[in-house]
Amino acid sequence: MKRFLVALVSVLIGAGVVAGVAVFAHATSGEPPLLVAEAGGTVDTPEGPMNSASLELYIYPNNSDAVPGPMEGVNALYASQGWPFYWPSTTLQVPANSLVTVTIYQYDSGGRVFNPYWAKVHGTVDGTMTVNGKTVSEWDPTKIAHTFTVHQYPDAGQPNLFVSVPLPDLGANEVGNANPYVDNPKVVTFTFKTGEPGKYVWNCEFPCGDQYQEFGGPMQQRGWMSGTLQVV
Amino acid sequence: MADTLTPPTDGPEAPTNRPPAMHRLREWLQRRYVRHVLIITVVVGFALLPLCWLILAAMNQSGGPASTVMEDIQQTIFVFTLVSIPITSFVFAVLIYSLFGWKGKGGDAPPNNDNPAISNNITAVITWTVSSSLLAGFLVAWGLIELADITADSYGSQPTTGQLRNADEVVINVTGQQWVWTFEYPQYDKVTTDILYLPKDRPVLFNVTSVDVIHNFWAVELGVKVDANPGAITQTGVTPNKEGIFNVRCAELCGLHHAYMETEIRVMPQDAFDSMMRENGGGSPS
Amino acid sequence: MSTATIYQVEVPQPKQHGKPGGIMRHLNFFTGLIGGVVLALVFGFLMNIQFPAGAQTANFANAAAGPTFWAMMVGWVIGFMGGMGAFVGPIRWLLGRDLTHDDAEFMAGKDQGKFRYWRFTTDHKVVGIQYLIVAMIILGFGGLLAMLIRTELGATWMEVFNPDFYNSLVGTHGIAMVIAMIVIVSGPVGNFIVPLMCGARDMAFPRLNALSIWLLVCAVPPLILSLLVGGIRDGWSVYQPLNAQAGPGMIGYQTTIIVFAVSTALASVNIMTTILTMRAKGMTWSRTPILIYGSFAAAAMGLYAFPFYMYSQILSMTDRLINTSFFDPIEGGSVWLYENLFWLLGHPEVYVILIPSMAVLMELIPVFMRKPLFSYYMAIAGIVGVVGLSGLVWAHHMYMTGWAPQANYPFMLSTEMISIPVGFLVLVVIGTMWRGTFWSRLPMMAVFAVIFNKMIGGVTGIYLSDVPADQYFHGNMFVTAHFHYMLMGAGLFGAMGGIAYYFPKMTGRYLDERTGSIGFWTAFAGFQITFMSMFVAGLQGQPRRVLQFDSMFNISNWISTIGAYTIGIGMLIFLAAIISSWRSGQVASSNPWQAQTLDWQTATPVPLDNFPVLPVVTKLPYDYGVPDPLAPKTLEKEYDEKVGAPS
Question: What are the helix (H) ranges across C442-550?
Answer without folding.
Answer: 442-465, 467-473, 477-484, 493-507, 513-540
